[in-house]
């Protein structure tokens, strides 16, 4: 055969393949989610997230130092709130001495260059397990936004570099930006979960924080997975309102959305490789059905290839080991 063009030429050896690879993972790509619990010297594996842990603050600080030494530069904090501190308004979320605020301070003190991002939503603090304030069976928007803005100020005052609202209330980015400005917190960034879908894949995360909704579901605020244009609308609005980084979540079943958003905005796009996506790989690997390390690299590369500039992932440490 005479072939004018032979595409296999560029695939014939590892050296050639790496020379022409379009997407390369680096430690700078990753945001590491951390689950913090009260107590000391405590570290407990999350049942539905094998190999991932809830830790006390002392252990979290050690972990953060290790992450920094591996080249990882940002963490995303979640705390597990004691049941007796939960109420409808998420009052504990605003406590300047709360676990989140203490954690931010301790991490910034131990590792000042580590970028600390914090989850902004009421669910871990809500007696109803909802991201907002409940009235009857409704999740009310405007009253919730006020609390989210105060919560953001509280995290920023404790030293958070970015607040990351994951609640999907309307108008929260503008309200948070305004509250930060009013309090002189001009350097605090907002990473908005701008296109966050109502997903069954959050299950293991809700186990980790004991934050599952006590009634109903989150479909009146998180997005319907049937929709694509809505993600672009939500994200453009968040950029307009002041989001510095936007996010698509989940990642794997939403690669089309990541690309769509990437093409539509001129701010960095992040994607959250969420708990259920982690659990699926872990479970299949444990059964011996897939190769875990290969699955991690293929998954994360696909998310970056789709358009994510940043990836929040429970596989960050594994990935860094695999690519170094
Ligand atoms: C809280 C929040 C959730 C996640 C991040 N922030 C859960 C939810 O919305 O129910 C999920 C992360 C994951 O599944 O890994 N609003």
From TrEMBL:
Task: Specify the pathway.
Answer: Porphyrin-containing compound metabolism; protoporphyrin-IX biosynthesis; coproporphyrinogen-III from 5-aminolevulinate: step 1/4
One Gene Ontology cellular component annotation held by this UniProt entry: cytosol
Give the highest taxon in the source lineage: Bacteria
Keywords of the record: Heme biosynthesis, Lyase, Magnesium, Metal-binding, Porphyrin biosynthesis
Identify the residues that bind Mg(2+): 234
Reaction equation(s) it catalyzes? 2 5-aminolevulinate = porphobilinogen + 2 H2O + H(+)
The EC number on file is 4.2.1.24
Q: Spell out the SMART domains in the cross-references.
A: ALAD
Q: Which InterPro entries match?
A: ALAD (IPR001731), ALAD_AS (IPR030656), Aldolase_TIM (IPR013785)
Provide the assembly information. Answer: Homooctamer.
Quote the protein name from its UniProt record: Delta-aminolevulinic acid dehydratase
């Amino acid at each position: 055969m005479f072939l004018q063009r032979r595409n296999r030429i560029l695939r014939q050896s590892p050296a050639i393949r790496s020379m022409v690879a379009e997407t390369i993972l680096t430690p700078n790509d990753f945001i590491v989610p951390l689950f913090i619990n009260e107590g000391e010297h405590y570290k407990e594996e999350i049942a539905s997230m094998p190999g991932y842990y809830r830790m006390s603050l002392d252990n979290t600080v050690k972990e953060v130092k290790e992450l920094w030494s591996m080249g990882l530069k940002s963490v995303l904090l979640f705390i597990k709130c004691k049941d007796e501190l939960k109420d409808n308004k998420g009052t504990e979320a605003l406590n300047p001495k709360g676990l989140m605020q203490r954690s931010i301070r301790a991490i910034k003190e131990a590792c000042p260059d580590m970028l600390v991002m914090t989850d902004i939503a009421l669910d871990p603090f809500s007696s109803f397990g909802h991201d907002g304030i409940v009235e009857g069976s409704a999740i009310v928007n405007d009253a919730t936004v006020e609390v989210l803005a105060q919560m953001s100020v509280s995290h920023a005052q404790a030293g958070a570099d970015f607040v990351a609202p994951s609640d999907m209330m309307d108008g929260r980015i503008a309200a948070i930006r305004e509250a930060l400005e009013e309090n002189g917190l001009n350097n605090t960034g907002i990473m908005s979960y701008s296109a966050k879908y109502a997903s069954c894949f959050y299950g293991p995360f809700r186990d980790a924080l004991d934050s599952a909704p006590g009634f109903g579901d989150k479909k009146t605020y998180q997005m319907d997975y049937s929709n694509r244009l809505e993600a672009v609308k939500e994200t453009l609005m968040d950029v307009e309102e002041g989001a510095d980084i936007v996010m698509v979540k989940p990642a794997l079943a939403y690669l089309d959305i990541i690309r769509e958003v990437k093409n539509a905005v001129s701010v960095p796009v992040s994607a959250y490789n969420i708990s259920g996506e982690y659990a699926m790989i872990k479970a299949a690997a444990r059964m011996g059905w897939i190769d875990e390390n290969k699955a991690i690299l293929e998954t994360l590369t696909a998310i970056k290839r789709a358009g994510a500039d940043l990836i929040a992932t429970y596989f960050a440490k594994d990935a860094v080991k695999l690519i170094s």
